[in-house]
Every structure is written in structure tokens, then in C-alpha cells.
Amino acid sequence: MTQSALDGVRILDLTSEMGWYCGKLLADLGADVIKVEPVGGDPSRGRAPFWQGIPGRETSLRFWYFNANKRSVTLDLGHYDGRWLFGELVKTADIVIESWTAAERAELVEHDVDPDAYMEAQPALIWVSITGFGLDGPRAGWEVTDIVAQAAAGIATLAGYPDGSPMRIAGNQAYAVAGISAAQGALLALLQAEATGGGQRVETSIQEALSICQETAHLQWDFQGTSRERVGESHRLPGIGTYKTSDGYIFSMVGVPGFGAPWTEVIGWMEENGMAEDLTEPEYANTFANFNMRILLDVEEQAKHAPVLARAQEVLTRFYASKTTMEAYEEGQSRRLLIGQVATPSDIADSEHLAEREWWLELNQPTRLGSEDAGLRYPGPPYHLSETPASVRRPAPQIGEHNQEVWVDEVGIPAEDLIAFAGEGAI
Amino acid sequence: MTDSSSPSSPRRRGRPLDGVRVADFSWFGVGPIAARTLADFGADVIRIESEARVDGLRLGQPIKPGKTGYNVCAYFNNFNADKRSFLLNMSAEGSQEVAYRLIERSDIFLSNLTPRIFERWNLTYEQLREIKPDIIAAYMPMQGLSGPHRDFLGFGAVLTPTTGISHLSGDPDRAPVGVGTNYPDYVVNPGHTVIAILAALRHRRKTGQGQRIELAQVESVAATMGPSLLDYTANGVNQVRNGNKSSWMCPHGIYRCADDPSARERWIAIAVGDDAKWESLRAVAKGAAFTSDDRFATLLGRRRHEDELNSMLSDWTASFDAAALAIQLQSVGVAAALVQDAEDMCEHDDHLAARGFYEYLDHPETDISLYDGPIVKLHETPGYLASPAPLFGQHTYEVATEVLGYSADEVAELTSTGVLS
Lengths: 427, 421
Description:
heterodimer; A: 427 residues; alpha/beta; Rossmann fold; formyl-coa transferase, domain 3; 2 domains; 6-stranded parallel beta sheet; 19 helices; 12 strands; B: 421 residues; 3-stranded antiparallel beta sheet; 18 helices; 13% strand
């Protein structure tokens, strides 16, 4: 029997889409995560993409991916009995995760759904708040979405073409980063609580967590008083940037000292394919034999070599265009050149490397569409722990699927009371 | 800066990882950043460095103007605050014994070296377990420890394309340009690594058992792209990039505002999730052409005519100060924000300043310098940066004697043979 790292940890997950990933990370590591949804379901269940393109609250692939391994109960926190039930459930929990807006939080506190009160009654309780801008400060009340967070965190300005608009990084990365930040906080607090008995509030500000991805922009401002701008490919040197192949694109990062084989290796590769043209002649060979950080960083130095660099760019562009993406990627990497495939989702799904590593999981997901379960080939975990592997043990829950087992069997609410609560709409 | 002598200062309280030691054999971005979070929360992180393989970030940009050397690059310093620098040349005869002695006295081993290198240095999990049976050994190879692409090279700039982020980001009519940084190196991969380490620490506290963590960076980033991957594996839909548009919010994008007095381009992000928010936006934009256009009355209409709406919205935002407009929109509950650049983040963001996110630490060579604060805030046992980045080799003697238990003579001997420096 495989052990889980988070055996015996119960988590209540009240988050919307913004906070889903935190609970998923912890659930995959073995925590018992109970999704506490409003009656009718988490409103962000309705987010695309959908299974077979059929929209619905039980067919969202996005919901499934981020909520597998969780159980679901429903309750109405606006209802007195709903709040009472929630209080009973909190007593069984180690960690509560929510991603309320400031307005929602204020309203809930007014109705006695107050994190401080729960933590006072239960000193070991950990309460994780995932917020756009933090729990305090002048913008604590601001609304947030993925693109708004990426703008506020200083990263959208760096992405995209210099002659176009700032750009959002794909994949709701602000929410991924939110979950990664909050899961770290939850686990740090858990280690502390298990060592000392003391729980605490954990707070993720997505703006802050995501701002770490500015790389050096803020550091450059601090040291040099200049803001990094998005450069796209405008400062491009031969070998560095996105290139078209015969069937797609590659990203090439060759000639940077300390990162893989030198530029001369590229010339050798082109030569073997009969495509080096005149780049084997001394004026090119000499420039590329000395292709160093100065050329990379110093605009004047680049200007000195401009004709050579331009010619190399032309030849290299032709060379890469003659290869398929996989040829350029695999042949280049086998020469220790830093080349990456610009992969589409199908390239990742078809990757022999990931297949051989058995990264993908298989999961049967009920769909409530009167048809068979959806047999899903499911993206695997971010890491492999040799003794306590992350795993997906159950599909994403349907709305309120576990009301009976949680309320009656685990919290101990008499079945007839549950019927009454359901009748009045509290669950 | 926080006054460390005040009794209420967090610097006097315990941190969750007090007493945990990390033998940090990583370098560049992803490994050291993971270790920095561990350090922020109390771990004693010993960075193994060497003159023979100087961390590229020590040689990178930006550097403190007028300064040179290994200690003046903020790229390195920011990610290595609160650690100790220990110079151990793993190519020198006798180095392995020193490395093993450190691992024996550590709880966590961390490496983002390629498998070829850590195998050559005899630092596989099987070998480490012999020395320290309950070690938690975290490896972060680009493509994993197995598979046909095991030895492929890369870092964030190569991961962004190989995990689908580049393909799915940006303008559908243009080539995928990437995201302008080594994005996955900063939170996604180090953060996942820390999560795995913390989970493994809990397991060890419960059972006494250590383990190996393998974070294949390509898998770790792909795990954040789950919905796009499932759309293909379940539906056969191979998604394409869609600019700044959303599948359900509209308008949703980044719009040009008035340039600032120094001709700096200013932009605002706006995301409108439902008709109520749309009405709020219309109220703020009273009189603008798009507010009286019936085609935009419903979400469906807005989506059908999205390009035209975006163009009309841009006409309206063009005359506004972006920061002021964001405040105005937020005051009626519309999600919006100035597209901030580094100057905004460091100088004009009153909110970040009020929260004290950035820490300013006094470093012997770069003076008072900016560091990122901890990635998450714990209210009772907060993380913090107890010291700035270490100077190159600053703690070699201290670690060799205090942690490893070598005598002064032994340190001298190890130094003369080139093992330590």
C-alpha cells in the first residue's frame, strides 16, 4: 500500500477558480480535500474547455483537472443552518482554503463566518486566504483576474512584441502561481502546527507571488534606474530567438557562453547538412569562435560585426527552415545546443519522452450526461516522490456528491436533520 | 526595514524550518530560488559554489554601477539571500568526502545539475542514502532522470516553448515570441519543488523515512497547462494562441492609455466577467461610443463583435491616465490594473509599499539593495530575510569548522589541495 505524504490532513476548499490549484496540489499528495460549494455548485465550474465541447457544470475539463481527488459538499453560507453546518465541518479540519473577494469576506464576517473566530476556537487551525492583492493595504479590496494580476505584477509589460500590446502569459498562470504560493504556505504552517500545536493565518497576494517572475526588471530598476522593456525579438542575434521550421517553430538559444555547445557547433551541424554556405570562411569562423558575452550584451560590439551577424542570420534561418521541428530539436540537443520545440498541446500529448516516463495518468470521469464515463488521459503530477508519490485517486466530484457521506457518516449529522436542511435550501 | 531588536519583531520568533539544514548543490535560477524560500522560512541553506564553476548568475546582469566581481549582481543576490556560501571544488581529489560529510549533517539535498554531472560527482540518491539514510534528496533535471530526452539542456527560456506556453501565448497572427523572461524558473518550478520537499519533510517527521524527489522541469510546467492538454487528449482540440482574449470574459484585454509626460507608453488591463460588470464599465465610460452601441448589450454580442469593441474601448482609454482609470474602474468593481513596469513596482506602487513586500538589505558591496519578499505570508511565523546574499566563499571556513567539524589545520590542508577555497 502506497503511503501519502499528507495522510490524515483534512482540508476544506472554499475557493473559486483562482484558488483551485492549491487544493489540487495538496489533494494529490494525499490530503482529504473537501470542496465546500454553494448550493448549485461553484460558479466557476462553468469554465471552458468542456468535455466533447458540451458546456455544463459537470463537463468542464478545467474544473475536472483542478478538482480531481477532492470530495464535494454543498451548503449555503448565507443561511443560518448552512453556517452552523460549516462550523461543524471546520471542527474536523486542519486547513481551510478560501479565495474570497474583500467584499465577500466582509459580508461573511458580518454573518459570523469569521476566520479569526474559528482559529480562536481551534488553535491548531490553519486558514489560507488566496487574494489578488493581500488582506491589507490600499488595494486589498480590488477585483482580480488572471490578466489583471499579470498586469499588476510587472510581468505583462515584459511579454509580447515591442510594437504590440503587453501580453498575458497563457494558462492562467496567475492562478497557478497563486496555488503554488498558497500550498507552500499551507505546508509550512502545517509543519509548524504539528510541531507546536499552533495554527495561523496564511495569506497569498497573487500580485506579490507573481511579481517574483519579473526576473531582473525590478532589480535593474533598483541598481540602474531603468525599466526593462519588452523586446520581443528586436534585439535578436543569430541563434537566439524563435525560428520557423518546415512544420512549426523552434526556440533557439545558442552561442550564449556557459549554456551548451558554442556557435561553432551550429556551423558544424549546418556543414554536415551541406547548408553552411559561406559561414565556414574565416571572417565568419573568427567572429563565431569568439562569440562571447560582449557581443551578446554590447550594442556597439554588435554594430561592429553587423554584416557578419546579418549574413549568419540569413543562413541559419534557411537551415532551420529545412528541418522539421523535431529534427531541429533532437539533432540540436544531441549536439548540446539549447534548442526547444515550440510545442503545441498535441506535441506534448504525443511526446515519446513523456510516454516513456509514464507521466500521463488514466482516469474515468463520470459526466452525468446519461452516457458512459469519460475515459481521460490525464496530465501527470509536477513531481515524483519515491516513497509518497502524488497521485490522482478519484475523479472530480459532482456537485454535492459527498453530502451524505460527509455530513452523516463523518460529521455525524442525523440523516433526518440533513433532509430538513436540504428542504430549506441550507445544503 | 524591520527593527530586529524590537520584542514584537518577527525576527525574534521561530520559523517553521528552524533546525533544517539544506545542502544546496544547485545553481542558476530554479534550484537556488527553491532554496531561498526554505531559507526565508528558517532553514540553514549552505550553497556549494566553486571557482571552477562559478554560478552564471554571479556573472550576469544587473550589476551595481561601478562595481565588478562575483558579489555585485542583483540577479544572483536576490535569489541567494539568507544563505551561506561554501566553496567546494567537486573536481578536486578529496572533495567527495567533504560533500558527504555535509550531506550527513543535512536534512535536504538539492540539485538542479544535469544527471550527467551529479552522477559524475557520485551524488545519486542511492549513494546519498548510504551516507544519510533519511536524506530528502531533491533533483530538478530539465527532462527528468529517465527517458530519451534525459540529457537535453535548457532553462526557463527553453521550457516556455517546450511546455506549450509559447505556442499558446500572444497574437494568433504572429510567430510565438515567448514571454520575455525565463518565466518557469521563478515560481512554477522552484515552488513545486518546495511543495514536494515540505511534503517529504512531513512524511519524514511522521515515519523517519527520507526519499528522493524528482522534479522534471518540463513536467512541472506542463502540469500548470492541464486544461489545454486535456482539451487535446479528451476532445482532440489542439488549442492555438488567442492574444489577450478570454474564453468567457469580454471585453478582456490590455488597452493603450495616454503616454506619460516622458512619452512612456501606458496600458491598462481590463476584464469584464458579466453583464453587471459591463454596466459598471458603461457607467464609468458614459458618453463613449461603445456605451450606446446595442450590439454590445449582451455577452454574446460583445463576443461576436469583440475586435470592434476592443478597438472602440481603446479609443476611449487612449486619453486616460492608466493608473487613475484603473482606480476609477476598481471603485465600481470592475477588475482592472495599470500594466506596471519596474519603475511602477519599485517607486509608485503605494499598495506594495504599504504591505512592505520588497525588503531592502544592506550588502557589503552593493549597499542597500532590493530583494523580493517571501512568496507567501504566514501571520504568526512569517518568513523573512535575515541576511543579504553571501559573498563568494564568505562562509567556507565557518561551515567547515562549525558544521563539518574540521579543525583549522584540516581546513588549511583541504585548502592547500584545492578542495576548499
